[in-house]
């Protein structure tokens, strides 16, 4: 089955998402096929393409969640919109700051921002009351803000924003 269908599954994935993700999606597709060997019909290609399609859809959703998490993390630390280079460095710094937090804090932040769960839903996931979760989430956000503000990348970005704001003010005064 692998030898007979791999190239066609790979071509399908490349046509939908490009070469960068094709090998990973094909690998994951055949991993699912291996786990569900009894569910594969006599003609496996359509089934395999459906699995690949679902994996692609899930990866697109995951990328959207990562983008929402980055935006949410930026909002938590009070970051304003900046140019693209600043956004990239800030996102990197925030994700590094998130990685330094304890696992429990990361889980709460991700459940809230990335997964979009309400406090009541997140509380059910972690096994505590919604009030307790809100307190823990607040503390996790504070720790994230502290970790991000200690980052040299975030300090450089903040300096760049202040310089940029001063330049806009100066240009505005000159225009009058």
UniProtKB/TrEMBL annotation:
Keywords: Sigma factor, Transcription, Transcription regulation. One of its GO terms (biological process) is DNA-templated transcription initiation. It comes from the Bacteria. Residues 93-144 form the RNA polymerase sigma factor 70 region 4 type domain. One of its GO terms (molecular function) is sigma factor activity. InterPro entries: RNA_pol_sigma-70-like, RNA_pol_sigma-70_dom, RNA_pol_sigma70_r2, RNA_pol_sigma70_r4_t2, RNA_pol_sigma_r2, RNA_pol_sigma_r3/r4-like, WH-like_DNA-bd_sf. Residues 2-66 form the RNA polymerase sigma-70 region domain. Belongs to the sigma-70 factor family. ECF subfamily. NCBIfam families: sigma70-ECF (TIGR02937). This is RNA polymerase.
